[in-house]
Amino acid sequence: MRLIITLFLITLPFFEIWGLFKLGAEYGWWFFGYIVVMAILGWQLIQDEKMMVIPKLVAMMSQGGNLISGILGSAKNLLAGALFLFPGVITDLIGIVLLLIPVQASLNQNANPFQQDVHKKNDDIIEGEYRREDD
Questions:
Q1: What pLDDT digit, counting tens, does each position of 21-33 carry?
Q2: Is 61 helix (H, G, I), strand (E, B) or coil?
């Protein structure tokens, strides 16, 4: 598995450069505009995530949410923004896939395995008040 990831990381720049030349020759200035727009969107995504990471974590702490999901969601968005900054179609596609993956939903289901659920539903217990009366 390490070999596959290493080969992918080594060959990715070559495929990106080859794709830039091919798509640049095919579409010309339109492709250059696409590269510039994606870089601006990536920079804006990074700036927005930097501004919202602390308020998002504070809100999760005050609501008792899972902090790990907030941190992973922010890291995922920062990585997607960084991938948008690099020129190329492959990194843009990887960034879009990263943005579409829902991290919070999958982590909130298994939020804290050590936390005991106080509000478990138990149908065997009937709550109420009673008093004994002598006959």
A1: 999 999 989 999 9
A2: helix
Query: What pTM was computed for the model?
Result: 0.69
How many whole angstroms separate alpha carbon 88 and alpha carbon 93?
A: 9
- pLDDT, tens digit (0-9, with 9 covering 90-100), for 28-64: 899 999 999 999 999 999 999 999 888 888 888 888 8
Query: How far, in whole angstroms, is CA 83 from its chain's centroid?
Result: 13
Residues 6+ apart with CB under 8 A from 77: 45, 49, 98, 99
Range list of β-strands (E), 1-135: none
Dihedral angle computed from the Cα positions of residues 13, 98, 71 and 117, in that order, rounded to the nearest 10 degrees? -150
**8 A C-beta contact, residue 84 and residue 38:** yes
- Coil vs helix vs strand at 120: coil
Q: What is the DSSP letter of 113?
A: T
Contacts of 113 (CB under 8 A, 6+ apart): none
Question: What is the rounded distance in angstroms from the CA atom of residue 65 to the CA atom of residue 104?
Answer: 10
